[in-house]
Every structure is written in C-alpha cells, then in structure tokens.
Amino acid sequence: MKNEIKMKENDFIVSKTDNKGIITYCNEIFMEIAGYKEYELIGKNHNIIRHPDMPRAAFKLAWDFISSGKEFFGFVKNRCKNGDYYWVLANITADYDSTGKIIGYTSVRRKPNDQAIQTIIPIYSKMLDLERSSGVKASVSYLLKFLEDNNIEYNELILSLQGEK
Ligand SMILES: Cc1cc2nc3c(=O)[nH]c(=O)nc-3n(C[C@H](O)[C@H](O)[C@H](O)COP(=O)(O)O)c2cc1C
C-alpha cells in the first residue's frame, strides 16, 4: 500500500536544476520527504521523482513557461523513493546570469490546499486519459479549453485554487 506523505505548514522543499532539468541542489526537507540521499539526487534528471499519475502536459506547460522566463505555479504529485507520494504546490522560476541569460531553474514547494488537490485530481486524471488515447496535444488542448471556459489564466487558476487570489 502506498502512503501519502503530507507536507507540514512550514515546510519548504527547494531544488535547483541546470537548463536541462538536471538537479544541482536540493535542501534537507526535499531529501527527507522524497527519501533520497543527496548523492542520489545531484546530477540526476528531476524526473527521478516523477509520479506516473502526473500528466505530461503539466510538465510541458511548466517548461514552456519557465524557458520563456515566466514563473510557473502548479500542483504536482511526486513519488518518493519507496513508492509513497506527496502533493506540493510548486513555484518554478528561472535563474539568470549577469547578462540576462537563463542558467537554470529553482523550484520552491509548499503545502498545497487539500481542497485544491481534490479539484485537480479529476482534471489530471482526464488529462492522463486523453494522453493515452489521443496524445499530449489533446491533453494540452483540454487544459487550455478549461481555462478559456472559466475565463482564467493558468497561474491565476492555480493560486485561486490555493486560496491566494
Ligand atoms: C526546477 C525544476 C523542478 C522540477 N521539479 C519537478 C518535480 O518536483 N517533480 C517532477 O515530476 N518534475 C519536476 N520537474 C520537471 C522535470 O524536469 C520533468 O520535466 C518531468 O518530471 C517530466 O519528465 P519526463 O518528461 O522525462 O517524464 C522540475 C523541473 C525543473 C526545471
């Protein structure tokens, strides 16, 4: 049986990657919750903690945002080393050098609103189904249509689900 690990109110899970999503830094709480040692994470692709319940379109959107310098907010289900899982509200931003070039990314994650997770679960599940039947494009389109129907921008939707907008 896989258990859900719940973040605490004051927990912040932080990691940094290079331009390709290879982990260059992670904080103690990251290692504690995900159940990995530092040497098992540094130099690895961040997808090491990807949970199979996460739709690909969510990550496509994230990369589209951050590679164009736009911050990204998202509810993400992650997988611990032992198969347990934990939900986070992630905020990913780009890191720049002194010439303004993107040299990597930083993600800061905090405890997500429980109600928001209950709302996002069926949306991700629908997206996953679409990815299996029709591909990632169909899943992105579904999400964009959902935003259009609700007349809301993506980051705005996430923050309003969290109860912050
Ligand atoms: C700074 C940063 C943090 C990330 N954090 C996570 C994370 O916590 N969980 C996750 O599954 N993917 C995270 N990603 C996205 C991964 O790089 C990757 O796109 C995703 O896991 C899907 O991987 P795949 O396309 O190889 O399956 C992060 C990316 C960046 C740049």
Give the key terms.
alpha+beta, 5-stranded antiparallel β-sheet
The CATH homology group name: PAS domain
Q: What is the C-alpha radius of gyration, as a whole number of Å?
A: 16 Å
Q: What's the CATH class label?
A: Alpha Beta
The percent range for helix content is 40-55%
The average pLDDT is 97
- Strand proportion, as a percent range, falls in 15-25%
How many DSSP H or I helices?
6
CATH architecture level-2 label: 2-Layer Sandwich
Number of domains: 1
Shape: globular
Quick overview of this protein structure:
The protein has 165 residues and is an alpha+beta fold.
Overview of this protein structure:
There is one protein chain. The chain has a single domain (13-162), classed as PAS domain (Beta-Lactamase, 2-Layer Sandwich). The chain has a five-stranded antiparallel beta sheet. The termini are far apart. It contains six helices and five strands. Helix 4 crosses helix 5 (136-149). A hairpin with a 5-residue loop joins strand 1 (13-17) and strand 2 (23-26). The protein is an alpha+beta fold and 165 residues long. Helices cover 41% and strands 23% of the residues. The chain has helices at 28-34, 38-41, 56-67, 114-134, 136-149, 154-162, and strands spanning 13-17, 23-26, 72-79, 85-96, 102-110. 26% of the residues are buried. The longest helix has 21 residues, at 114-134. The structure holds flavin mononucleotide. Residues 15, 17, 21, 46-47, 49-50, 54, 59, 76, 78, 92, 105-107 line the site of flavin mononucleotide (FMN).
